[in-house]
Every structure is written in C-alpha cells, then in structure tokens.
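Format notes (please read before filing issues)

Several people have asked whether sequences and structure tokens are stored in separate files. They are not. Every record keeps both together, in the order shown below: the sequence lines, then the token lines. Line labels are part of the format and must not be stripped during preprocessing.
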Amino acid sequence: MDEKVLFQVRHDMESWRRLLEFLQQENGHLLNRLSEALQFENEADFLERSEYFQGCFLAESDLISLLRKDVTELESLLTQEFYLDGHWHVMLRRYRHLKNEISKLEGEYAKLRNDFTGFLTGV
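Then the structure lines:
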C-alpha cells in the first residue's frame, strides 16, 4: 500500500464531496431559473425546450446523488481499512472509476449549464 496514494484518494474524496454538493445546489438554482422563465414565456418552442432542460436537470440530480453514494461507499472502504486485507487493487479500481465518472459529470454539466444559459439569453 502506498501512503501517498492513500492520501491523494482521501483528498480527492473530500474535493468530490464538495463538488457534488455544489453541483446539487447549482442544479436547484438552474431549475428555479427555469421556473421563473416559464412565468414570462409560453410559446410552444420555449415550452418544449424547457421540458428538455428540466429533464436534463432531473437526470443530473439523480446522477449526482448516485455519485455521492459512491463516494460514501469508497470512504467506507477506507474507513474499514478494507484495502489492508489484500484488496488494495479493488479500492483503487473503484477510485479510478469514480474519478472518471466525476470528471465526465463536470464536463457534461458545464456544457448543460452553458446551453441552458444560452437558451435563456436567446429568449
């Protein structure tokens, strides 16, 4: 077991926890903005695009919740020192997978937020 790697894993998990909390709050904020925009617009095209964005935000919320659960489970593995019983590679595999998923979420969410902002300013 490499102590530097373990330190990095713990650091990343804390960063992910904060990031996922922020994204969950941001998602709620964007849903509120959508709700406010719907008070002023009722054209069919606007309503259709609004439904699309609402569906995206709800799907992102579900994904964020799943990733938060995964971070908690990984933390549980570390807390139980599961990795000390020869399962270090299992923990590292889950860590790398989670790291990729969170990175992917960040990129996709930034694009969604930009698309949504463009949609609102184009109204």
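For reference, the curators noted about this record: The mean pLDDT is 91. The chain has three helices and no strands.
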